Amino acid sequence: MEKHDHHLIHDLETLFKANTDRRRSLRWLLAGAIAPLPLVGCGGGGSASFGSIAVSTGSSSTSTSTVSSCSVIPEETAGPYPGDGSNYNSNGVANALSLSGIVRSDIRSSIAGASGVAAGIPLTLTLQLVNTAGSCANLAGYAIYLWHCTRDGLYSLYSTGITGENYLRGVQETDSNGKVTFLTIFPGCYLGRVPHIHFEIYPSLAKASAYGNKLKTSQLTFPTATCQEVYATSGYESSASNLNAISLATDNVFSDGYSLQMASISGSVSNGYSASLTVGISA
User: pTM, whole model, 2 decimals?
Assistant: First the structure.
């Protein structure tokens, strides 16, 4: 059972209200083919690895990656736990965007004086931002803020016991290929939602400090078979039972379609997973 500070009913009502004005009938018309994407580097120096998955964190990629077909990713609710300054937690305004060190690729640890580390199966996630109004051209110099729950279904800054933590939240600037790479853990599944990751798109890093500057809010999800594989491991026990009570067809965010939000994924529980998604906006 989810242990959030807000009751589940509040969460679901919040999500439902935010989705009432979504243009459901357009989702399938907008659905397009999403090509699997290779992993590429992100800002910073050196390298980071999860098991056998190694990701370069050099300043730029050595090859150009383009997309031939793209569609605008659906707008989705940020949910009750965005941490972007738009709402409150027990300590006041919850704004991870204002934290020193929030621009980072590895989001498993807390920053700015907090020391917690989120446990779970390693996940390397690459998003590629493209312009649907410009022949799917890569969008460099934008910023993506990403956040998700722990393997227990809790959210840093909000959930009881971890309001002082800020892990599983981070910002990255898109490189020349329109890409960002986050090093994280596979998210858990809490009661009432399928496994998912939230993200907001900003026009630049400078603008990624206030939620009012965001261009798009959306979510991504994962194949059910992969979720079941991860949730069969130690530490994800509650996620396994919660997943059995929900499906993509009954989820109140993805029930109207998810083809543009389903991440491509590979890997294993022993070596970690790598996932990718093309994110289209009209720029």
Answer: 0.80
